[in-house]
Amino acid sequence: MANKYWFKPKWFGYGFFPVTWEGWLATLVLLVLILLSAFAQGIYEPDVTTKAGVQFFIDVCLLAGVATLFFEKKMEEPLQWRWHWPRKH
Fold first, then answer.
1. Which of 38, 71, 78, 87 allows an S-S link to 43, with CB 3.0 to 4.6 Å?
2. CA pair distance 88, 53, nearest whole angstrom
3. How many CB atoms are closer than 10 A to CB 41?
4. Using an 8 Å Cβ cutoff, are 86 and 18 in contact?
5. Mean pLDDT, contiguous 10-residue spans, the chain (89 residues)
């Protein structure tokens, strides 16, 4: 089976968005991992510490970085800044 692309690049700016159920599932898994990190660090507690906030920030950066590297392999085009809007036909 040929490579099935899960994500398409944004038309304007830097980024991508899911276009298949696999892409949506991968995005949902990333969101769940971020929420689990938030709960593990106690971000939702009223007396959250700066250390917990910094650790959560580091967790989000690491998760987003790893996800971006994986997601980029499932894109039709490379990840780059785009200046063009879709053409109307």
1. 38
2. 45
3. 20
4. no
5. 78 87 95 96 90 95 94 85 68
What is the per-residue pLDDT for 79? Answer: 82
Listed residue (52, 61, 4) closest to 34, CA to CA: 61
Q: How many CB atoms lie within 10 A of CB 59?
A: 18
Token pair of 12 as six digits = 């304007």
Residue with tokens 């085009």: 77
pLDDT at position 1: 45
The answer to whether 1 and 22 are in contact (CB under 8 A) is: no
Task: Say if residues 16 and 81 touch (Cβ distance below 8 Å).
Answer: no
**């944004």: which residue's tokens?**
10
Question: How many helices and strands (H and E) does the chain possess?
Answer: 2, 2
